[in-house]
Design brief:
Elements: H1 26-68, H2 75-93, H3 105-112, H4 117-143, H5 153-164, H6 166-181, H7 190-194
Helix pairs in contact: 1-2, 5-6
Length: 195
């Protein structure tokens, strides 16, 4: 096949030309395919970054061993390991524009304190589970009829408000009745209804 003449448009490929035989769902299928490719690329980039971080840790370990057992002859080895470390850090910096990941500051502080970042996840999950149980307990207590005799919390609250504030409760009930009948728009202030 000969190359196209200068200035000619490239030939359309089957994937770039929309087909009317594909049906109305073809656009969403293509969009989902694009999302899958993007997710796969992001996962591959994340795995590449993880590999580079492992290489960096290995380089740091080798450098620390070399420095610990330092002898006059190992000066060139230390220099070589430092150059490798700089290259590794440069490679890792190249990933900053390829990944959109959010890392909580608390995780970084765990790492700085020499703690395992998985402890942050464990602590966070335990705290959320505890809050969830506490909230569910409150909801259950408010729904239970035994807490207020034979009344629900809402009925007991209404009864106590009515006995403590009879005038306000009467006005509130009148407003609710007007809204229920549709004679008053609940979003419009009462002063505008009278004018």
């Amino acid at each position: 096949m000969s190359p196209p003449p200068a200035g000619a448009l490239p030939a359309a490929t089957p994937s770039s030309v929309p087909s009317t035989a594909q049906g109305p769902d073809s656009t969403s299928t293509q969009h989902i395919g694009t999302m899958d490719v993007s997710a796969t690329q992001t996962e591959q980039t994340r795995q590449d970054l993880e590999l580079k971080l492992q290489e960096l840790i290995e380089c740091l370990l080798e450098l620390s061993i070399t420095v610990y057992d330092f002898q006059n002859e190992s000066g060139s080895i230390v220099h070589q390991k430092i150059q490798e470390l700089i290259t590794q850090l440069s490679d890792i910096e190249g990933f900053k524009d390829k990944l959109e990941m959010m890392v909580p500051w608390e995780v970084l502080s765990y790492i700085e304190d020499g703690k395992n970042p998985d402890l942050f996840s464990k602590t966070f999950v335990e705290a959320v589970a505890g809050e969830n149980q506490f909230t569910n307990g409150k909801i259950t207590a408010l729904k239970a009829s035994g807490s207020f005799g034979s009344l629900s919390f809402e009925a007991a609250l209404s009864q106590n408000l009515e006995s403590s504030f009879p005038e306000e409760t009467g006005a509130y009930s009148a407003i609710l009745q007007e809204v229920a009948n549709g004679s008053v728009d609940p979003g419009v202030p009462e002063s505008s209804h009278n004018s």
